[in-house]
Amino acid sequence: MLIDADKSDSYFAGGYAHDNGTFAHAAVENDSISITNGTITLVEGWQPPYVFDGPEVVGGTGTGLAQNNNVTVSGNGKIYGGNVSTAGIYGGRSRWDRAVNNRVSITDHGALVQIDKVMGGASGAKGETNSDVSDNYVSFDSDGQSEVRYIYGGEAMEVANHNGVSITNGVLTAENIIGGFSSYWDALRNYVWIGENAELHIDTGTIIGGEGETAHQNQVMIHTGKPISSIGCVDGAAAETRAAYNQVSIQDSKIEKCWYMTGAISNHVTNNNRFSLQGIASVSSLGIAGGFSWAEDSLKAEAKENIVSIDPEASATAVVIGGGAGPNATKNILALDGTVHAYLLGGGGAYNPQNYFSSEHAEANGNVVNLAGAKLVPIKLDDPLLKEYTEDEDYKPYIDWLKKAGDSLYVTGGVLLVGGKAQDNMVNLSGTMDLSQANLYGWITGPEILEDSSKLDELIGEHLDNSVDHSGNTLNVGYTAELSTDEDGNAAITGKAADWHGSKIQGIYNFDKIAFYNVDHSQTALTVTDTVSLPDTVTLDLDHFTPSSSPDDSVIKDDVLIDASGATTVKGLDKLYASGKDKYQQPVTRTYANGGVTVMGKDGLALSADNKLYYGLHSLDNITYNTIDWQTDGTVLTLADSQKFDLANTKVHTENIGFTAKSLERITKAGDYSMTLLDTQGNKTLAAGNLTTKQGKWNISNALEGTGVASLDANGNVIYTMDTVEKPQEPNKPAIKVQAAEETHNVLIANEAGLSILAAGRDRLDSVLTNFNGQEGGVFTFASLGGSKDTYDTGSESKTYTWNGLVGVGNEAATKDGDFSYGLFYEYGKGHYSVDGAGYTGSGDAHYNGGGLMAKYMARNKNYVEGSLHFGNLKNTADSVLHSSDGSAYGYNTSSNYWSGHVGFGHIFDLTDKVESTSLGGTQRAARDLDVYGKYFYTHVGGDSFRAGEANYQLDGMNSSLLRIGARLNNRSGWNNYYYGLAWDHEFDGESNGTVSAAGLSAPIRKADIGGSSLMAEAGWKLESNQENPWEVNLSMQAYAGQHKGLGGNVYMAYHF
């Protein structure tokens, strides 16, 4: 039905179906009414059979299934109920069956309705097979001004499932808004959404996500920029027997003067519901609860695991705010991060539903209040929320009974209306807060918030028994908790440490335990200004507390846990102290000054006569200085409250003291070479004999070291003074006396190890040249591969394990007076080394690659001359050559270019006239001959620099000048040559030098030197090429003794074309 003109009648239906009394369940589907510009006015009159109420506009109605029916009011369309109090608008209705996916939409500019009720879908079925009302929807998105008493997304006799009301635009005046309503069964997953530009007037009315016998997973979401005021209630759900997993979420919206607000309310079980204020939401209500169980007389009613959360920028004004309330209130949470104006804040509250004045059967257990940077302000008696009550003569006397009303607020883990059981409730503090007007309670009873509880006795005519069975109620300082699920699927309260920055607190009452976690050590954790009232059984928990000794601290001081020196009443603080006095007196080791100072002593508790509870170091056994910042005109460590310490047996260790390079940069500029290691603040009980090292070494990054003196000044302070030397060029400006640390010598040994790996490659090249004899003629290719283990006496020691080789191509040509052989080659070698420098060991790897040329001239008289020249790059990777002061390794890399060359002279003496073989080129070989030679090898490796820790290392270039004089005896049998030889090596240079610097200071490193003499012995077998075999093979071994010790082997192969 499409209506675009004014109409007046008693009944409008897009579709209508009935069974004529046969109960055939006639369905109505996909029918609709669309009012675009006209106005419908409903009047009293004729109604078709099976119509529920009075006049109505309905998309589709029937005795059977009602599905996908719609009423749309758009454009300037309007519907008026006239003077008919029961007039209604329905998307779809069923008499005896389901109502599914029906819609009422008021949309576009100017559209409005003014009527008694609007429902997306409704069903009158009860006890039928198909009776659900699901997925029905009412939407207000018009800027018109609508007035409706009742707005239901769906109404059912049995299950109302996933129905909703959405109000996003225009002005709407209503009394009751319910997402889904069930008369006898479950309201499930229904919702109310109020958002965008909606302006809602709902004086004393209700907003409920879902209502039924039971209610699960319903929600109310409010996110509108227009304020809402004077509401009766906002509930995620309302149920007769059970409400669970429902939610109210208010974001960036303002609600004023609401009677009460809950995640859910029920007459029996109210569990796992949530109420949250998000963004800049602001509400005022007499009471707010995550879940509220209003049981008339059932002792089994409960409110468990409900949550109220208020975000940092949100605010709430309420007399009472609680996570959950009921006869049994368990594991409810009140999480406050925002601003709260209130009188009573509780994790969970309990009462006896059969007798409100009895303490029996009321239990508040395991409830939590998280105060995390919240702003807490007592609600004022002239607040608009309370004014009408404070000025009412009937209410005012009772308000006057309240303790400090308007001046204080009360925060409690568990609330008992009269008395009962309170166990394992907690109040958790974290963040930065002003609690100067707050009183913290582990549990609280109704009479305790009265100025004079006897007036209540007078009122009821008997004395109230407000006794409490209590245990485990805890104040956690520097802690927060949340509701989670354990491995068995059960709800559990779990928590963790969180920073707390201290605050004044009006009072601390009724805690069975006070536990401290992460506190700001710069101020008192809790300063109590009025009252401390704790039970005699109270205990202190410091098991997870880290005392004032974070690594960056420079003051040894006590933590003031509780300062009640300004309180008017103090009870139980001595019991709290006594509970931990012995338990927490124990040996400890702490670090200060960024970890540079280690202090060993004993912790302990102290309670002063003026009611201050302290915890910290009470005795000092050892103070050990390691790597610290040099404090020019400063102090490394200060004893606060120093007079409590007896330092007669305290040892001060400076034997391993070191300084950071960055801090020493300042000292070199300031020219002040003494500082205070320990400021005892006038405590003179430390004797000079307690300084274990009068004069000792200090170091920077285990690279530079100097000496200094620790001494006591007249005030008992420990002073450290560096040794200095006079600068010849500036006699009045002393400089720090500094030298390279002994371990730095390892760097130069590692440098020598790289040189020794190159030297092993030099021997490969030398062995190749022995095969250049000019006897073959023509082009040939060759390759040599060898390995060795070498040890060099460097002043300390280096060991290398090396593999290296070369490949090349050569040519042999006859000349007038002899034969000339030459070749081009590529060389590569790698090795692993270990160094041992005066007890400092380390290791690394090095490799080189390069290329060059070699040549040899053999005269007819068997004199010969040879030479080579090659270039390349040497890379050295040291993984544990250097170490920091704590023993951890510094790794570093260097890369240097090298060049090397040699010249050699020799003569081959035939020892027999017998010819044993003839070469490929026709040269006859004697059966025995002796090769006598002298060779000079020169190698240069460039310098490099690197940084390790805070020190810079500069390595100078290295030179090797080696003279080798030796002889080799060849014994031939056929094509086989068995040879052996002996040579003397002398290294004329082989020094490695360098410097280390840091903080503007530098010193030469103790040099490493492989200079000296060694003997080399060799033996081998050679398959010599001949006129029948172009291949040449040479297997050899070398052994070294003296300055250079080692053993190596080599394989050479060549092919002559």
Low-confidence stretches: none
> Would you count the extended β strands for me?
89
Mean pLDDT: 89
The general outline is: elongated
> Termini, distance in Å?
107 Å
Helix/strand-derived category reads mainly beta
If helices are DSSP runs of H or I spanning 4 or more residues, what is the number of helices? Answer: 6
Oligomer: single chain
Radius of gyration, Cα only, in angstroms? 48 Å
Relative strand content? over 45%
Descriptive keywords:
elongated; 89 strands; 56-stranded mixed β-sheet; 1057 residues; mainly beta; twelve-stranded antiparallel barrel; 6 helices
Summarize the structure.
Helices cover 6% and strands 59% of the residues. The protein has 6 helices and 89 strands. The strands form 9 sheets. The protein has a 56-stranded mixed β-sheet that branches.
Explain how this protein is built:
This protein is mainly beta. 6% of the residues lie in helices and 59% in strands. The chain contains six helices and 89 strands. It has a 56-stranded mixed sheet that branches. A hairpin with a 2-residue loop joins strand 67 and strand 68 (730-736). The mean pLDDT is 89.
Topology record:
Blueprint: E1 2-3, E2 7-9, E3 11-17, E4 28-29, E5 32-35, E6 39-42, E7 56-62, E8 66-67, E9 70-73, E10 78-80, E11 88-94, E12 99-100, E13 103-108, E14 112-123, E15 133-134, E16 137-156, E17 160-161, E18 164-182, E19 186-188, E20 191-196, E21 199-201, E22 206-216, E23 219-224, E24 228-229, E25 233-244, E26 247-251, E27 254-262, E28 265-266, E29 269-271, E30 274-278, E31 282-293, E32 302-304, E33 307-310, E34 315-325, E35 328-330, E36 333-336, E37 339-350, E38 363-365, E39 368-372, E40 375-378, H1 384-390, H2 396-401, E41 409-416, E42 420-423, E43 426-430, E44 435-445, H3 454-460, E45 468-471, E46 474-477, E47 479-485, E48 491-497, E49 503-509, E50 513-516, E51 526-533, E52 539-541, E53 555-556, E54 559-563, E55 569-571, H4 573-581, E56 587-592, E57 597-607, E58 612-625, E59 627-628, E60 635-639, E61 651-653, E62 658-659, H5 661-670, E63 674-679, E64 695-700, E65 704-712, E66 718-722, E67 724-727, E68 730-736, E69 738-740, H6 745-769, E70 778-793, E71 797-814, E72 818-837, E73 840-859, E74 863-883, ...
Parallel strand pairs: 1-5, 2-6, 3-7, 4-8, 5-9, 6-10, 7-11, 8-12, 9-13, 10-14, 11-14, 12-15, 13-16, 14-16, 15-17, 16-18, 17-19, 18-20, 18-21, 18-22, 19-22, 20-23, 22-25, 23-26, 24-27, 25-27, 25-28, 25-29, 26-30, 27-31, 28-31, 29-32, 30-33, 31-34, 32-35, 33-36, 34-37, 35-38, 36-39, 37-40, ...
Antiparallel strand pairs: 47-48, 54-58, 56-57, 57-58, 63-66, 64-65, 65-66, 65-69, 67-68, 70-71, 70-89, 71-72, 72-73, 73-74, 74-75, 75-78, 76-77, 78-81, 79-80, 80-84, 81-82, 82-87, 83-86, 84-85, 87-88, 88-89
